[in-house]
Design brief:
The complex is a heterodimer.
Chain A: H1 3-6, H2 13-29, E1 35-36, H3 48-57, E2 64-66, H4 73-83, E3 95-99, E4 121-125, E5 134-137, E6 145-147, H5 153-160, E7 167-172, E8 175-179, E9 184-186
Parallel strand pairs in A: 2-3, 3-4, 4-7
Antiparallel strand pairs in A: 1-8, 5-6, 5-9, 7-8
Chain B: H1 11-26, E1 32-33, H2 47-56, E2 62-67, H3 74-86, E3 90-91, E4 100-104, E5 117-121, H4 135-143, H5 148-161, E6 172-174, E7 178-180, E8 198-203, E9 208-212, E10 218-220, E11 247-251, E12 258-262, H6 265-273
Parallel strand pairs in B: 2-3, 2-4, 4-5, 5-8
Antiparallel strand pairs in B: 1-9, 6-7, 6-10, 8-9, 11-12
Helix pairs in contact in B: 1-2
Classes of the chains: A alpha/beta, B alpha/beta.
The complex binds zinc ion.
């Protein structure tokens, strides 16, 4: 085990995770808003924000899938040491981490008609996260919001599955935003 | 030193509840199962709401607890003290100053902001339970959007009583999909379910969490010929004169004398402080020891 594996977790897990959860929850409740998070310093290529989400929400009950880019010895060891979450194939995952193009969207659990909550949450690492881009409407949004998204059609197809579907958290350095399955996405013309 | 964890619950339990809250927000009105824990208070005191509050609170919060609108009942005081002690939160009775409000059976009169969180204590989360005792069946009914029986029940009310008799826990449809029990709030409060704040519902004994994000479409079930009405006693508050607040009726003397007063004690006190006086009210004075 490398020394770095032991580091980078929450300094005070109960308080750090409580504060981080508030940032994650308000992001999920209000799609389009971008929140800062602190407390984790995971090994590259994991962002601080992705590390915070994993530490806050994952444990032995939540299998995690990593795309090849993130499936490194350091990342695996860090997640295992700090969360004890099992690392699994996409189909079995409750959470997943990856860049947008690498995530096998069709393979993740979208829930069942009686248990739509039994669906995966994808942590999508993005290079840019800005309050401009696609137009968002739906629960949590007063009128409309805008957010830089790595895709449009995929999120429209996901929303059409409601109440089934995937939920997304976009992470960029120490910032995050969320896109639950309820959000209706429209591309707006880029000049 | 304390011998309990922050906000009492262990970290794994809080993570499990937090994940349920996020799925609840992603599927508004859908009841997410969770593994409820024993809390150091009886079920009737709202252990579901307490567990949700424990998973949501940070030490930076200002916490308010209301029981039927009042901050000073045994139940409200106990829960407030519990989190003051275990989570180190500041506490308040003022709705405007609270970042997290746990409630039993009311929505505050003061409109909530988008940075406020309302946590409901829920006794029976399943709105179809009185029609269908089987959990397997009600789950199937929700999955198929089979809500016809609920409409039949409400319509039977109309044919028997000339109006929909359901006065509390009046069912709503959330974002055009799930029929949800808003907990035993008076139907007067139903329109306030469309709000800027985050609404989280916790049922301890029944082990369910559900949620309504801000600005979500919440519609009280009704009929074209019998539209929903958010009724209240046709009276003004005798203490503060408010005509727009939900009222409790009190017998005040042996001769059967009655008095109506705001059920939301913070709202009533705020109005009286501002100089409003009802028919039986006296000008507001700060308590002096
Ligand atoms: Zn009053």
């Amino acid at each position: 085990m490398q020394a770095t594996t032991l580091e980078g977790g929450f300094g005070n897990a109960p308080l750090d995770s409580a504060r981080a959860f508030r940032q994650i929850m308000t992001a999920v409740a209000q799609p389009g808003i971008i929140n800062d998070v602190v407390g984790a310093t995971p090994p590259a290529p994991l962002s601080v924000a992705a590390g915070v989400v994993l530490l806050t929400l994952c444990d032995p009950d939540t299998p995690v899938f990593l795309t090849p880019e993130f499936d490194t010895d350091d990342v695996r060891a860090w997640i295992t040491f700090h969360t004890s979450a099992p690392l699994v194939d996409a189909a079995k995952a409750s959470f997943a981490v990856g860049s947008w193009g690498d995530l096998p969207i069709a393979d993740f659990a979208i829930g069942t008609s009686e248990y739509p909550d039994r669906s995966a949450t994808l942590i999508v690492e993005v290079a840019l996260l800005n309050p401009e881009g696609a137009e968002l409407r739906g629960p949590g949004i007063k009128g409309k919001a805008t957010l830089s998204l790595p895709d449009t059609a995929a999120f429209q197809e996901n929303a059409a599955l409601f109440p089934l579907g995937l939920d997304f958290v976009f992470t960029c350095q120490n910032r995050l935003a969320a896109l639950p399955r309820t959000t209706k996405v429209n591309a707006i013309k880029v000049s | 030193m304390t011998d309990y964890n922050f906000a009492y619950l262990d970290e794994q339990t809080k993570r499990m509840i937090r994940r349920a809250i996020l799925k609840g927000l992603a599927i508004p009105g859908y009841q997410v199962p969770f593994a409820s824990r024993e809390m150091p208070m009886p079920y009737g005191w709202g252990t579901g709401g307490v567990q949700v509050s424990a998973a949501v609170l940070t030490p930076d919060d200002t916490f308010k607890v209301i029981d039927q609108g009042a901050d000073d009942t045994t139940n409200a005081v106990s829960i407030r003290r519990f989190f003051e002690k275990t989570a180190g939160v500041a506490v308040t009775e003022a709705t405007v100053d609270a970042s997290v409000i746990q409630t039993r059976h009311r929505i505050p009169e003061q409109e909530l902001r988008s940075d406020q969180i309302l946590v409901y204590q829920v006794p029976i989360p399943e709105p179809l339970r009185f029609l269908e005792p089987s959990e397997v069946e009600t789950r199937k009914m929700h999955s198929l959007e089979e809500y016809g029986l609920m409409h039949v029940k409400l319509y039977e009310d109309i044919s028997q009583h000339g109006a929909i008799a359901t006065a509390y826990a009046y069912p709503v449809k959330v974002e055009g999909r799930y029929v949800m029990d808003p907990s035993p709030i008076p139907k007067f409060d139903n329109p306030k379910l469309n709000m800027a704040g985050i609404q989280l519902f916790g049922a301890g004994r029944e082990q369910r969490i559900y949620a309504v994000p801000p600005y979500t479409d919440v519609v009280s079930l009704d009929f074209d010929d019998y539209p929903f009405e958010a009724s209240k006693a046709d009276h003004a508050c005798d203490l503060c004169g408010a005509e727009d607040s939900y009222l409790d009726e009190l017998i005040v003397d042996d001769a059967g004398g009655r008095m109506f007063m705001c059920s939301d004690t913070d709202y009533c006190a705020g109005r009286r402080k501002a100089g409003c006086i009802g028919a039986q009210g006296i000008p507001y004075q700060e308590d002096v020891a």
